[in-house]
Amino acid sequence: MSFSELREKDVINIRDGRNLGKPIDLILNETACVEALVVSEGKRGLLSLIRPTRDGRAIDWRRVRRIGDDVILVEVEGERCEA
């Protein structure tokens, strides 16, 4: 799966069902293994189409439970996402 396919999926927290946003980046370690998924923060609006934001929060890759056809399921506690 390519990153362009991955970034089209919604990231859903299975603990409370919240949509956390869409992937905007990956954090890789020195051996090019994925360590975290960076998810967009804030509301998407017309301005984001013109000037997409790169602000986001990192979700530790070990928190990703399943990548489906339309969504990425993660398990994170509360408001904080751990990197």
Describe this structure in words.
The chain contains 2 helices and 7 strands; from the N terminus they run αββββαβββ. The chain has 83 residues and is mainly beta. Strands 2-1-7-6 form a 4-stranded mixed beta sheet, with no helix packed on it. The chain has a 3-stranded antiparallel beta sheet with strand order 3-4-5, with no helix packed on it. The longest helix is centred in the middle third of the chain and has 5 residues. 16% of the residues are buried.
User: Could you tell me the number of beta strands?
Assistant: 7
The CATH homologous superfamily:
PRC-barrel domain
Helix and strand run: HEEEEHEEE
How many separate structural domains? 1
* Gyration radius, in Å: 12 Å
Mean model confidence by pLDDT: 85
What is the helix tally? Answer: 2
Per CATH, the architecture is: Roll
CATH fold assignment: SH3 type barrels
The proportion of residues forming helix, as a percent range, comes to 10-25%
Strand order of the largest sheet: 2-1-7-6
Top CATH class: Mainly Beta
- What is the 3D form? globular
The separation of the N and C termini measures 22 Å
Query: What percentage of amino acids are in beta strands?
Result: 35-45%
> How is the main sheet built?
4 strands, mixed
The structure class reads: mainly beta
Contiguous runs where pLDDT drops below 50 for at least 5 residues: none
